[in-house]
Amino acid sequence: MAPMSKQQIRRPAEAPAQAGEQTLTFEQAYHELEQIVEQLERGDLPLEQMLALHARGQHLAALCSAQLDQAELKIRTVSNAQ
Fold first, then answer.
1. Residues 2-19, buried b or exposed e (16+ Cβ, 10 A)?
2. What is the pLDDT of residues 38-57, one digit of tens each?
3. Cα–Cα dist 80/54, whole Å
């Protein structure tokens, strides 16, 4: 997997969501989250960058969780309708 660019790494935790982020698919968000985990596990980044990556990872994890919740609700709705 390709490492994130320095621009992505240095994005402050309090920065607003990226343009088009609302349309990230589950797979896209999960892939980026995997990249972040790999970078954090290496532990070779300065603390400031690790904190920014951690914040981004938490945001992506919440996004993935919300999408999974929506999918589960759709499945339950369809299952109950039958």
1. eebeeeebebeeeeeeee
2. 999 999 999 999 999 999 99
3. 39
Dist. CA 70–CA 48, nearest whole Å = 33
C-alpha span between 24 and 29 (Å, rounded): 6
Give the span between the Cα atoms of 19 and 49, in whole angstroms.
21
Provide the whole-model pTM: 0.71
35, two tokens:
């990249």
Cα distance between residue 72 and residue 74, in whole Å: 5
Calpha distance 82→55 (Å, rounded): 41
6, 40 contact by CB (below 8 A): no
